[in-house]
Amino acid sequence: TCVDPNLHKEGFLWIQDLTMTDQWWILPVILGLANWLNIELHALKKLSKGNQTNRIMTNLLRFLSFGMIYIAAHVPAAMCLYWTTSSCFGLAQNILFQLPEVRRALKIPKTPQDSDHPLKDLANRFQVAAKQFADIQRRQ
Asked: Which listed residue, of 40, 81, 122, 135, carries a Cα 20 to 30 Å from 50's Cα?
């Protein structure tokens, strides 16, 4: 068999067997949220200019990030753990590289799209999106 026998005996937090799926769907949900947040971070810069192609691609990637939840829930937990870890590191890296202090320390040149308060901008964007979602739910 191609599977390392130790994966059956080793676990991670609530997952006892890394060859089985995450029965609680915790890792898949974290994966989907990390991917979605990563897309939203990039959308802050891209959609402000906004052409139709950018909007379509961003919406497609949003859909795929939540589709990954279902896919990740049906693969071995070891693979889901790898994907989740990778997505979380990517998200952390993207957040750090948007902070003006980090960009200055690493001597990354300022671009016209850079915000002086990227985390505040992101929080405001999520508040607007949550309000729009709530309005849509009330109308139904």
From this structure: 135
